[in-house]
Amino acid sequence: SFKQAEKAVHQKKEQSKTKCRKARRRHINSVAEFNRRQRKNIWLETHIWHAKRFHMVKKWGYCLGNSPTEKCYRACYRAMTKHCLLQDLSYYCCLELTGKENELLKQLARLCSIDTGLTFEEACCLSGRFEGSLNLYRADRYPEDTLGPVTFIWKPRDGSENRQLWIWVHPALKQDILRELKAIFQCSEAEDVCIPEPGTASVQEEKQMDVVLSLGKKRKKEDKEGEKAVPVKKIIGDGTRDPLQPYSWISQTTGIVISDRTMEILKYRLIGPLSHSVLTETLKAASLQTV
């Protein structure tokens, strides 16, 4: 009887130590854990939402939702035809060109042709009211040596001769198009080097922050301070760019600046008849303040 009582007490202690599934799966430092899991494939800002509902694939340096886990095709079709459907296109790479409008148009004309339709000089697009799309070719090589399709949008004029142009390219085409843009604008000198913020952990430091996984034991961090440890900051970069490489280049002859704004300027697509209504209800115009 004494042994049975001792066994019952022992079992009671074992049961008290067990936690619910949510508590057992909770990481002691979710920021450090998420950064560790993004070393090879960057997450979009909507990654957690997609990871719970989609089969994820690793492509072009990103972790993307490929197909839904539930049968929601009819719901998506209904949203596209009657309501509003949002798509996260932030994995597309954004290249920003800044400089004099005449110089930008002069060199960009070498990458496209009026025979294919739209160009960077289209009046409705040049004003900044509409987004344009076209196919790019290597400089002066049309109709051969196609680089690929891109979309672009001009920042509306502010009275100065300097303009800003954002070109959105697929990550698989980014390196070829960026190389061609740097060649035609003679942007060889790096303007800035992306330096991680103070406190950003390197790979070795993140390894020290990794958890010790063991069966039946609580996850613990290899840090003397324990809970007082500072969370790891997210390293600047994206799936197509090393965080320690230059991300902005300037031309000494023309003053044109090319900047890689990937994962800095996000892109979402709204589809459906109520898209405009959703935008007007979501976005509020800021009050104009003059200095």
TrEMBL record:
GO terms for biological process: tRNA 5'-leader removal. GO terms for cellular component: nucleolar ribonuclease P complex; ribonuclease MRP complex. This is POP1 protein. It comes from the Eukaryota. It holds the Pfam family POP1_N. The gene is Pop1. InterPro entries: Pop1, Pop1_N. Residues 5-99 form the Pop1 N-terminal domain. Signal peptide: none annotated.
